[in-house]
Design a protein that fits this description.
heterodimer, A: mainly alpha, 20 helices, B: Rieske Iron-sulfur Protein, disordered N terminus, Cytb/b6-like_sf (chain A), transmembrane (chain A), heme (chain A), membrane (chain A), EC 7.1.1.8 (chain A)
């Protein structure tokens, strides 16, 4: 550029000179040109991903502060700090330094609580963002790989949470590690060695806190950061999805430019998320480790339960009967296999596997390999919404089971009964959720049809000449109407023979799934139908809001 | 409803289809007309919005000031959570609250201010941008020809030996780093077998370390017990590791109400039974004792063990009874162990059944 200097731009202002200096050395103009007015569609559900990103940034900030004072050592010491109930107690350096952060560092308690609340919100926002992406079909081509990146981020969020939760080395987190130790040991043959490697020998040993520390502050955050970069890079490449609506097509993006509107809204939202978390962290105690005491293998509190994102795994363990109708510990070739631990892990792994693979499962069943930049309203994809509801129910039943004892004590019922009911729901719940969610979707779709065909209820009652009273229905304007009719419904794709004229077993399964998903469906209203709905009854006077109530009455 | 089929004779009646839906769609009416906001048409409203934003930014400044007032103004002097002097604890709570609220206000002021600015004063015209093909065919063809050139110039095709030896070397090269992980932990599983219990080791209270006379253990009482030799073990010598295997619950039951199997007749002292406190499910301490039902309950996953039947599992996810510690009394009348447990305590691991066999052979 500067070699062929026919013209060298000379800025006149100081800011201009600095900008020009940087621009001629890093090529900033092209970045501004690419991103400065890039369009982002607006919808409130698109904020969940932002919440996840922002709470992660807050985690990095608060975590860095905590690392300045936290001491990841299991070397034992006598506590000499400010907190009276623990004075003189023998404890690990990790626990002592966590007490110091809470009680001796000014603002330390706020930072600890900010970090913990942010972690809970991070995992929550990732989960809700995933649900949004799932239920609106945003994972479809070309975004399948980004969905996978998102799934990896969800798992990383769980690992980050668990590893951080264990660092204070208190009784509660120590019991969590004890459970992790037992789950590792349950793996046939190699499990015992995995456990010995994790803990540097027997549980609890003197190694685990230092190892979890490096996992928690370096390995996992680095992986999460890397995944976030890939995730956002792909969002830029794909451009954001948008909901259907007038003027919005598969080939355009309608929304606000990054500069200034979107940047201001998204940037401002970071401060709002931070503000909410700061208010919670200042006012609401979380993980009061000073009440639990340093880790000791003997005590444990009744009603102990993990942070919410680990709840499903703990609940799965609680639901499995260990000795009914027979002992689920078997001996295979001399090896003890604790099926009571391993069996509940298999459906959990299956659920995560299905989650990763869903974009391809859906493509296979629907035979839909088109590019989708327009999102589905969840009701307009009843099959997917139903599958999602079943998955959420399966997850929720296990998460609720993790609080089975608290439900029992709060509602004065037997803990055994709570578990029996949840065991039944573990199997029946997802099926019921599938059926109910699909019925809801179909009903909502029919309601949409109703509104498009006959207009919306105006609340005005009109007396007809022959004495009948009817409610006047107002027709929709074309923009509102287009929002309700612009979607594609899938149809049953029966099993088809392949090139050799044979219907393979896999194709039969696909055909059956296609029937299950799409035999009940509601199509969008067509202009002809609207015409017909208006046509076969006497026209209303426009002045009172021409509707189509007559067809309502006919029914 | 109108002319569309409502219901399917085979199915549930939810089928609603339109004939020729694909051919006959509503035309896209295009973007709805832009509706101006108050601030677009009324300069007073715009001025008002501007003032609101400024006010919010000033609130943020106040929030930061509150933070520093709380940070320097509130003194937390003296012991915390002290039963006598509760003043410093209250000060700490107040300080924590105000630090949080100060930062929160500082953040909210900026955040809500900027968003309000964007929503009221920045243009709200929606802009349409076209999407482009993610991979235009021309670019694909060009990329492919570049890759072919790279492939050819590298000579991989003409000199396969280069490629094959490189793959071999690259596969082997990371293995040393895997090997370096071997010393993460010892691989001798024998440590998992034995606890510090042994013949003649006294049962002492956890954590005081005082020995227990049989007469101390009244009907219905429960003791949290550790072996006496554990109390002299330092933390650096593996105190927690040993404690994790040796914690025991001690209870007296009515001997007439307890089923005792043949080999365990002399394992209890007049109805005083000692059981491992470590759950056989995933290793939580069994901390709850229901006196009237004689059940032990694990607070983590609610595994329930029946004391009257040698801690057989009657509910929950545990698959094995709790190991029993054989006990007797010594010449001074204190409770002592007859031996170690006859099986490894705690959760199952693959090699456990070999250990059980060896330990029972040892015991007999």
């Amino acid at each position: 550029m500067s070699t062929s200097t026919d013209f060298e731009y000379r800025p006149t202002t100081r800011t201009g000179r600095i900008a020009n200096y940087v621009d001629t050395r890093v090529g900033g103009s092209s970045i501004v040109k690419e991103f400065g007015r890039k369009i982002f569609p607006d919808h409130w559900t698109f904020m969940f991903g932002e919440v996840a990103l922002y709470s992660f940034v807050i985690l990095l900030l608060s975590g860095t502060f905590l690392a300045l004072w936290y001491d990841p050592t299991m070397t034992s010491m006598e506590y000499k700090g400010n907190y009276v109930p623990m004075q003189g107690v023998e404890m690990s350096g990790a626990y002592a330094s966590t007490l110091n952060i809470s009680f001796d560092i000014r603002g330390g308690l706020f930072l600890r609580q900010l970090h913990h609340w942010s972690a809970l919100l991070f995992a929550m926002a990732v989960a809700v963002h995933m649900l949004r992406v799932f239920f609106t079909g945003a994972f479809r081509r070309p975004r399948e790989l980004n969905w996978v990146v998102g799934c990896v981020l969800f798992i990383l969020a769980i690992v980050a949470g668990f590893s951080g939760y264990s660092l204070p080395d208190d009784v509660l987190s120590g019991n969590g590690l004890r459970i992790a130790d037992a789950i590792a040991k349950s793996v046939p043959v190699v499990g015992t060695y995995i456990s010995m490697f994790m803990f540097g020998g027997e549980f609890p040993g003197h190694a685990i806190i230092g190892r979890l520390y490096i996992v928690h502050v370096l390995i996992i955050p680095a992986l999460i950061l890397m995944m976030i970069v890939i995730h956002l890079f792909m969002v830029v490449v794909h451009k954001h999805t948008q909901f259907a609506g007038p003027g919005r097509t598969e080939n355009n993006v309608v929304g606000y430019p990054v500069g200034p509107v979107y940047a201001a809204k998204a940037g401002g939202f970071f401060f709002i998320v931070f503000g909410i978390l700061a208010a919670i962290a200042g006012s609401t105690t979380i993980n009061a480790i000073w009440n639990y005491g340093p880790y000791d293998p003997s005590p444990v509190q009744a009603g102990s339960q993990p942070d919410w994102y680990m709840g499903f795994s703990d609940g799965g363990l609680r639901l499995m009967p260990g000795s009914w109708p027979f002992s689920w510990e078997i001996n295979l070739f001399g090896l003890a296999i604790p099926l009571a631990i391993l069996l509940p892990l298999i459906p959990m792994a299956g659920m995560f596997g299905a989650m990763f693979a869903w974009p391809w499962i859906e493509r296979w069943v629907t035979r839909d390999n088109r590019v989708h930049n327009i999102l589905d309203r969840p009701r307009n994809a009843p099959f997917r919404t139903a599958v999602g509801a079943a998955g959420v129910t399966f997850y929720a039943v296990q998460m609720i089971a993790a609080s089975g004892d608290l439900i029992a004590t709060h509602f004065h019922v037997a803990v055994n009964d709570v578990i029996y009911w949840l065991r039944a729901l573990y199997f029946v719940g997802p099926i019921l959720a599938f059926i109910i969610a699909r019925r809801f979707c179909l009903a909502l779709q029919r309601k949409d049809r109703e509104i498009v065909l006959h207009g919306r209820e105006s609340g005005r009652i009109q007396a007809l000449p022959h004495g009948e009273f009817v409610e006047v229905h107002e027709p929709l304007d074309e923009y509102r109407r287009y929002k309700l009719v612009d979607f594609q419904d899938h149809q049953v794709q029966p099993a088809r023979a392949n090139a050799k004229g044979k219907i393979t077993a896999g194709e039969k399964v696909r055909g059956r799934l296609s029937h299950l998903f799409f035999e009940d469906r509601v199509s969008p209203v067509t202009p002809a139908e609207l015409e017909a709905a208006h046509g076969h009854h006497e026209p209303e006077p426009v002045a009172v809001g021409a509707g189509s109530h007559a067809s309502q009455i006919e029914k | 409803m109108g002319d569309h089929r409502d219901g399917n004779p085979h199915k549930s009646g939810a089928v609603v289809t339109s004939d020729g839906a694909e051919l006959d769609q509503f035309p896209d009416p295009g973007l709805p007309p832009h509706r101006p906001r108050m601030t677009d048409v009324d300069s007073k409203a715009a001025k008002r919005a501007e003032h609101q934003v400024v006010l919010l930014f000033l609130l943020s400044v106040i929030g930061s000031v509150i933070f520093f007032v709380a940070y320097f103004g509130i003194r937390v002097d003296g012991p915390l959570y002290d039963a006598v002097n509760t003043e410093p604890t209250a000060q700490l709570r107040l300080q924590n609250l105000l630090l949080g609220l100060g930062i929160a206000l500082g953040m909210f002021g900026i955040g809500i201010g900027v968003v309000h600015w964007a929503r009221t004063l920045m243009p709200d015209h929606e802009i349409v941008e076209q999407r482009h093909d993610l991979r235009p065919e021309s670019e694909r063809a060009e990329a492919q020809s570049i890759l072919n050139t790279i492939y050819d110039e590298s000579g991989v095709k003409r000199r396969p030996l280069l490629r094959n030896t490189l793959i071999g070397a690259a596969v082997l090269m990371p293995l040393p780093f895997v090997g370096l992980l071997k010393d993460l932990g010892p691989t001798d599983l024998k440590v998992l077998r034995h606890s510090m219990w042994d013949e003649g080791v006294r049962l002492v209270r956890d954590p005081s370390g005082t020995p227990i006379k049989a007469s101390d253990v009244t009907l219905g009482s429960a003791f949290h017990v550790i072996p006496e030799n554990l109390t002299s073990l330092g933390h650096e010598e593996g105190y927690l590791n040993e404690k994790a295997k040796s914690v025991v619950l001690l209870m007296r039951l009515d001997p007439d109400k307890v089923n005792v199997s043949e080999g365990r007749k002399d394992w209890n002292v007049d109805g005083i039974f000692a059981y491992s406190k470590v759950c056989t499910h995933v290793g939580c301490p069994i901390a709850l004792y229901e006196q009237h039902t004689h059940h032990l309950l694990c607070p983590c996953h609610q595994s329930t063990f029946d004391l009257t039947n040698e801690c057989e599992v009657i509910f929950g996810p545990a698959s094995r009874p709790l190991p029993q510690l054989p006990i007797t009394v010594d010449s001074d009348g204190y409770l002592v162990a007859r031996s170690d447990f006859h099986e490894p305590v705690g959760p199952t691991y693959s090699q456990r059944d070999f250990a059980v066999k060896d330990m029972q052979d040892e015991a007999n």
